[in-house]
Amino acid sequence: MSRKHKKILNAIFEKPTRSDVVWKDIEKMIVFYGGDISEGSGSRVRIYLNGVRAVFHRPHPKKETDKGALSSMKRFLLTSGVKP
Predict the structure, then answer these.
(1) What are the residues whose beta carbons fall under 8 Å from the beta carbon of 79, sequence distance 6 or more?
(2) What is the pTM of this model?
(3) Is the pLDDT of residue 60 over 90?
């Protein structure tokens, strides 16, 4: 695992929940772990990782993920077996 992926993963699981994690970095980390990301309608993205599927919305107009989406991403990663 690269240092950047480890840093992003730790940021997702950090408490209190952060609001400065860049969405593109999260997508790159998911692909690194073998995940598949496909485009949905609008800002939706479908993510498939280790047999678990989820749909997220890319943040806009900002590039940072909000706290609610980061909490959902944390649950998704735990469900799919990815832990820091």
Answers:
(1) 52
(2) 0.90
(3) no
